[in-house]
Design a protein that fits this description.
Layout (H helix, E strand, L loop, with lengths): L4 H53 L46 E5 L5 E10 L15 E9 L7 E8 L4
Antiparallel strand pairs: 1-2, 2-3, 3-4
């Protein structure tokens, strides 16, 4: 007494349906796990960016104001094309905000995910605190961007610093 053709076809059909069901369940679980990792990574990226900004808060407004009050007006501030760290300055030991212009760093979080951090600094105006200006003002905008292969889009956090707050 063996298995008949009809029973064999039913068995093969059941195996195919079960296989398809298993693949669907595994794909759903993978997508869910990926979303969880992406969400956690975005939160960590935002935290890293915020940490860089909080480090910048402790720095002087400009090289011309690190150890003294600005005496020569706007023209005494660093020219926009010269923003960036001075020779020998290394993060986190920058002395003023514009040292963060062109700053790049890699960081590995506790969960083992690697993040790339970049930042830009530029002058902005009170009327337009988003777009960078081509001349000196009493406001500087710091943009910190953190990216990783595990987040769909880089996380950018910005802050505008005012000379008047120093």
């Amino acid at each position: 007494m063996g298995i008949g053709r009809a029973e064999l076809l039913i068995l093969l059909g059941a195996i195919a349906i079960f296989g398809r069901y298993s693949l669907t369940i595994n794909a759903a679980r993978y997508n869910n796990d990926f979303r969880i990792i992406a969400c956690e990574s975005q939160t960590v990226a935002a935290s890293i960016a915020d940490g860089v900004i909080e480090t910048a808060v402790t720095k002087g407004f400009d090289e011309a104001t690190v150890s003294t009050i600005l005496s020569g007006g706007l023209t005494s501030l660093t020219e926009p094309n010269l923003l960036g760290a001075e020779s020998g300055e290394v993060y986190p030991d920058f002395d003023d905000i514009d040292d963060f212009d062109g700053f790049t760093m890699s960081d590995t979080a506790v969960n083992g995910i690697q993040f790339e951090i970049t930042s830009t600094v530029g002058y902005v105006s009170e009327d337009d605190p988003v777009n960078l200006q081509s001349d000196q003002t009493y406001l500087k905008r710091l943009n910190v961007t953190v990216s990783s292969e595990f987040i769909p889009e880089p996380v950018t956090i910005s802050r505008v610093f005012s000379y008047y707050n120093y």
